[in-house]
What we know:
- The protein is 10% helix and 28% strand.
- The two termini are 22 Å apart.
- The protein has one domain: Metal Binding Protein, Guanine Nucleotide Exchange Factor, Chain A (Beta Complex).
- By secondary structure, the protein is mainly β.
- The strands form 2 sheets. A 6-stranded antiparallel sheet has the order 3-4-8-7-6-5, with no helix packed on it. Strands 2-1-9 form a 3-stranded antiparallel sheet, with no helix packed on it.
Amino acid sequence: MADEKHSSGAEFEACGARSDSQWRQELTREQYEVLRDRGTERPFTGKYNDCKDEGVYRCAGCGNELFSSRTKFDSGTGWPSFFQPLSSDAVREEPDASAGMTRTEVVCAKCDGHLGHVFDDGPGPAGRRYCMNSVSLDLQPDDE
Length: 144
């Protein structure tokens, strides 16, 4: 990504207290478009699509821990995919009828940032595929 404004693990004020202008200052243009405007990055362009590094994926908006690299798999869709969140309260699922289809949106439970969508065609015990936008995530490597 061109202009990195934001680093993983940074401490932020309470998410609900941020104004739109604060979000615009703290996030890159791409992060803002996805996290706050619920956009989608193009497939196969995100930095975490083919990433095999171990660690914890955090929300790029607030630092909330979302997914473990141990649950990441290659779905062939062009977006990083996980078969479960790190904890049951890390993300929220909400109905999404945009783009002419019915899907389930996945948002950060802490800051309501748009992360991606979840589908019922994945591996693992629940058969879920959490298809996330790389720009919504920051990987904190295990060695940190």
